[in-house]
Amino acid sequence: MQFAISAPETGPGKGLSEAMRYLLHLLEAILAVNLLVLVHEMGHLLVARLFRVPSLKFSIGLGPRLFGIKFKGTEYSLASVPIGGFVQLAQGHDHDSGTSCMDCVSPWKRILIYFAGPAANLLFVVLLFWLVYSVIGYRDHEPVVAVVEPESPAALAGIEPEDRILQVNGKRVITWSQLVLAFETDGRGPVTLVVQRRGRQEGSGTEDSQATLFVSLSPQAHESLGIRPAEQMIRLRLGPAHAIRKSLNKLWLVSGLLADSLIGLVTAKVSPSELVGPIYLFHLSSQAASAGPAALVYLLAFISASLFFFNLLPLPLLDGGQILLTFLQRVLNRPLGDRSLRLLMHASLFWLLLILASATLNDLVRLLAS
Question: In which band, very low, low, confident or very high, does the pLDDT at 226 lie, cut at 50, 70 and 90?
Fold first, then answer.
C-alpha cells in the first residue's frame, strides 16, 4: 500500500502565486478607483449637456492615449496613466446656434457644471453604502461579552463573560454596533439591560439552560462600560429603505471626519505625515479587494467622499477654484486678467505638486515599514 503525502507549497512557486494574486487584486483596485473618476467626470458631462454645452473630449487616465472612440462629437479615450481623468468642454464662442459654451452660459450654470463632479462623487457614496448594507451584506460582532474589565460599571452591575445582551432600555439589539449606539444615546442616566446567560448543571460542568436577567447600571458621563465583544460575527442585510437611512447617516459621519481632517491640515493641527497618496491608496484598495467585495466597496465609498472634499478646495486647477473664480467674475462683473490667472494657476500647481510629493513620500515610508 502506498500513501501520497502532499507537502505544503513552499519556495518560489508559492511566492510567485502570492505575487500574482496581489497583482490581480491591485488591478481590480485600479479599475475600482478609476470608476470613481468616471463617476466624477460623468457628473460634469451630464450637467454640461443639460445646459447644451458640448463636450469635446472625455478621458479616463492621464498621459498618452491608449485607445478611444468618437461618439456624437465627443472623443472618449483611455489614457496610459490610470490616475485621474478629465472632460474637455467647449469654451469659445465659435459654435452653432443650437449649442452653447462655457463662456456663453450664465455664471450660476457654470458653477453648477463645476459642482456636478464632486456632487456625483457624494451621491455615489450613498449608492456604495447602500450596496453594502442592502445587497452585499456587512458583518458585525454579535452582542456577546468576551471581557469584563475589573471595577468597571459592567463588572459592578454583575455582567459576566459570555453574557449576550438582548435589550438596552427596552430596545432590541442584535449587533455590537447597535449596543454601542444605544449606550451613546441612552447611557447618560440609569440603563437597564436584558441579558441572556448560559446556565450550567451543578457538578457536571456542562451547559444546562439559559437564564434571562435584568441588569441595571449607571455609568458616569464619558465613562467606559468596560466590556469588549466576543469574536462571533453576524452577516446582515437591511431592507432598501432602512439601508438608505443608514447610508445617509454613514455619509454624514464620514463627511464630518473628513472635514475635521481637512481643517486640521489647513490649521496645522494634523501633521502632513498623515497624508495618503495614490501609491498607498492602491495598496489599501488591493488589500480591501482581497478581503472581499464589502471591504472594497466600503473603502471606495470613503475615497469617493474624500474626492468630494478634495475637488472643492479653492485652487484654480480644481473644481472649487473654478467655482470661486466664476463667483469673483460675477462680483467684479469682468473676468480676471490673464496675468493674475496665470499666477493663480502656477501657485495652485505648485501647491498640488507639493501635496503629491509629500503624500508619495509618506506612501513609500508606510510600504517600507510594512
Answer: confident
pTM of structure? 0.75
Q: What domain range includes position 20?
A: 12-54+90-137+273-369
Do both 155 and 132 map to the same domain?
no
Q: How far is CA 289 from CA 19, 22, 259, in A?
A: 14, 10, 26
Helix ranges (DSSP H) in 51-161 = 107-130, 153-157
41 labelled catalytic: yes
Separation between Cα atoms, residue 183 and residue 169, nearest integer Å: 9
The answer on 153 and 130 residing in a single domain is no
- DSSP structural state of residue 144: B
Q: Which of 18, 28, 41, 223 is catalytic?
A: 41
- Amino acid at site 249: N
Say whether pLDDT at 125 is over 70. Answer: yes
Task: Measure the CA–CA gap between 331 and 320, rounded to whole angstroms.
Answer: 17
Position 175 in a domain: yes
Amino acid at 7: A
Q: Does 207 lie in the same domain as 120?
A: no
Residue 172 pLDDT > 60: yes
28 lies in the same domain as 129: yes
